[in-house]
Amino acid sequence: xxxxxxxxxxxxxxxxxxxxxxxxxxxxxxxxxxxxxxxxxxxxxxxxxxxxxxxxxxxxxxxxxxxxxxxxxxxxxxxxxxxxxxxxxxxxxxxxxxxxxxxxxxxxxxxxxxxxxxxxxxxxxxxxxxxxxxxxxxxxxxxxxxxxxxxxxxxxxxxxxxxxxxxxxxxxxxxxxxxxxxxxxxxxxxxxxxxxxxxxxxxxxxxxxxxxxxxxxxxxxxxxxxxxxxxxxxxxxxxxxxxxxxxxxxxxxxxxxxxxxxxxxxxxxxxxxxxxxxxxxxxxxxxxxxxxxxxxxxxxxxxxxxxx
Length: 308
Description:
It is built from 13 helices and 8 strands. It is an alpha/beta fold.
C-alpha cells in the first residue's frame, strides 16, 4: 500500500513537467476520454442522459482550476451558470461540482464567494445542488470559509462540501461544521501532500474515511462516499442499515468511467449512485491525477501514447 502512495507522489511531481503535458495533450486525448465526458457542454449533457438510462445520476464538473485573472474567473463562472441552467432543462437531479480556484479563490476569498453565489442562485432556480470540491491543503481554510459563509451566514442550503480522508485535519474540520448537517462528500484525496499535512499509509486513510462518513451520518447530514473501494462501500452500507439510516440520507459516488459494473449493481439494488462527470478543454490536471492513482493507469496511457 505504501508503494502505491509513493508511486502516486512521484508521478504527480512528474505530471507537472510541461514536456509531458504537451505530449499527453497532443497524443492522449482519446485515452482521456475514458475519464472525461468530452470537450463541450452538449457532450456532457449526452453523457448525463446515458448514465440516467442505467439508473445513475451525475455530478457534472466543468474542468478548470487555479485561474490567474478575474476575467478568467468570470468566464468560468458564466459557463458554470450556463451548465446549471442547461441541466435545469433535463428531468433529472441537477448536481454541479465547482473548484473554487476555478472561480477566483487564489485572487481572493471574497471574489470566489461572489462568483459562487451567482452559481448557487442559478442552481436554486432549477432546484439544483452545487458541491464545492476540496483542492490541495494550502487552500483548505479558504475553501471552508467560502462554503461556510454562504451556507451558514447567507442561508444557501443547496451548497455541499468535500472533505479528504488523507488530511490529518479533516476530523476536526468536520466537527466545526457538524451542527450545519452538511451535504458532505468524503473522498480519500488525490493531491501530492507532505507528511505533516496528510497520512501516508492506506490503512489510516481508510479508517479516517469511514470515521468521517459515519460521523456525518450520525450527525444528520446527507453523506456521499466518494470511493471505488468495494470493501469500504460495503462497510458503509452495512453500518448505515444497522444504524437505521434511510437510503435517502446517503449515496455512493464514483468517477466517470471507473467501476462500471459495481455502480450498476448498486443502482439496481436501489441505492443512489452518482458519477462525478467532468468535461471541458482543461482536462490535463484532472487526467494526471487519475493516472497517478494506480500503476496500471500509467501503463495504459504509455501504451496509448506510443501507439498514437
